[in-house]
Every structure is written in C-alpha cells, then in structure tokens.
Design brief:
58% helix, 6 helices, two-stranded antiparallel ribbon, single chain, Butyryl-CoA Dehydrogenase, subunit A, domain 3, alpha+beta, five-stranded antiparallel beta sheet
C-alpha cells in the first residue's frame, strides 16, 4: 500500500512539473510571437520615410553649401583701383577666390565692386589651414586660422552625425522597428545645431579678418552658401523632432488601461 502511495505521489509531481514546463514553453513562444508581431505599421513606415526625406533635403543643402566658396563676399569700393576694373573676394571653408571685374558691368547705383556672379577674371586657391597651418591674406587682411579651423571642424562633425542618423533610419526601416528612431533624432538635431554653430563661428572669423587691417576699406556680406547651410540646419533640427514624435507611442495611456481592467 505504501509503495503504491509513493508511486502515485511521484506521478503527480512529474505531471505538475511537465505542466509547468509546458506552460513555460508556451509563455516563451507567446512572448516570442508578441515580439515578432511588434512591428511598425505601413502608415507609420510611410511617415518615417516622409520625415527621412525632409532630413535628406537638409543633408543635401548642407553638402551643397559646404562644398562651395560663396560663404562671404568682400568687395572693394568700385573706383578704388581705377575707372575700368575693381576687385572683390569670396571664400568659404576650404577655398578663396579673388575676382577682377569690369566697372562698366556693375550696377551704377552700387558703390562697391560686385556681385561675384559678374564676368571677370578669377584666381582661386585652397587655404593652407589644414596643411601647413598658414593664414591667408586677402586684401592685406589676415585670417584667423583657429576660427576658420573651428568652423570647418564643426561642419565635418555635423556631416558625421548626419551619416549616423541616416544609418539609424535605414536600420529602422529594414528591421521594421521604431527603436532606432530616437538615436536618429538625436543625430539629426545635433547635426543641425553643429551646422548653425559652424555658421556663427565662420561669421566671427570674417569679423576677425576685417579687423586685422584697416588700410583697404571693404564691404562684406554673407552669400548664398550661408543661406543654404543655415536653412539646412533648421531643416535638420525639424526633421529630428519629427523622428522624436514618431518614436513616441500613439496613445501611451492605453498601456495602463488594460492593467486596470485585469485587476478588476
């Protein structure tokens, strides 16, 4: 009798253990199935692609502005040299150009030489900030190498953050999960801030250039490349905030609502 009792107890324990293992495996399978099905919908994927397109516009404008030498125009008075020609300069982060224009082609109401898109002779050279560390001399005025280097480094860092943000968005779309949207938003917002800081530092370098010598009067104005880069910074920040909104749940309070119903 006692032997039958112990055998029955062992059978009951084995049955309970088997049920527990089956329940645990079923729970793990259910959890895996829930993880697999927790993917973004088609509408959310379309919104992410639209926000990514906005960010790509900012990236394109940044690359366009950074690669050109029309960040600032420095113009001498129209009749400073003579009655036939005048000189002006324009430069960007990497290269500067000295242009000789015909006075007859300039607007009669304009007192300074320019603008830079008029026909004339150009002499362009790359800056030596990054190679030998020499300052450039433009119309007897000397550039501030540290400020120019800082503006260029900030611009390159912004490009790096744009590439990282784009990689995060591509991974999010390929995996079908919204986990990478927050890192992408951080990268794009930081890249936009770095672009705007690069413009501010560059403007300070222009002011330092103008204050280095006062023998030749110059009229300066920021050109269309700065407009491209400034617009790109604002677009990148806007795109980053769009990714933040898309990474948030549609209705976060619904997560607590089923829990309250289950307790009741």
């Amino acid at each position: 009798m006692w032997s039958n009792f112990f055998v029955q107890q062992d059978d009951d324990r084995i049955g309970v253990a088997g049920a527990g293992q089956a329940g645990g495996l079923g729970g793990m399978k259910g959890f895996r199935g829930q993880r697999r099905t927790n993917k973004m919908s088609d509408s959310q994927e379309g919104k992410i692609k639209l926000a990514f397109f906005v960010s790509i516009v900012g990236v394109t404008l940044t690359v366009l502005g950074m690669g050109t030498e029309f960040w600032v125009e420095l113009a001498q008075p129209k009749y400073f040299i003579g009655n036939q020609t005048c000189q002006m300069a324009h430069y960007g982060l990497w290269k500067g150009c000295i242009r000789t224009l015909w006075v007859s082609d300039i607007d009669p109401e304009r007192t300074s030489c320019g603008p830079a898109d008029l026909p004339g002779e150009s002499n362009c050279t790359y800056f030596k900030f990054f190679t030998s560390g020499e300052n450039a001399v433009i119309f007897k005025k000397t550039t501030n190498r540290n400020l120019n280097l800082a503006a260029a480094i900030l611009a390159l860092l912004s490009l790096t953050m744009m590439v990282m943000g784009s990689i995060c968005i591509v991974m999010s779309l390929s995996k079908g999960v919204a986990f990478f949207l927050k890192p992408a938003s951080f990268c794009f917002i930081l890249s936009g801030v770095l672009v705007l800081l690069s413009v501010l530092v560059f403007h300070q370098s222009v002011l330092a250039l103008l204050s280095s010598d006062h023998s030749i009067p110059l009229h300066h104005e920021l050109s269309w490349s700065v407009a491209c880069v400034g617009s790109a910074g604002a677009i990148l920040i806007f795109g980053g905030f769009l990714f933040i909104l898309l990474s948030l749940p549609f209705s976060p309070w619904q997560k607590c609502w089923p829990h309250k119903n289950s307790t009741t």
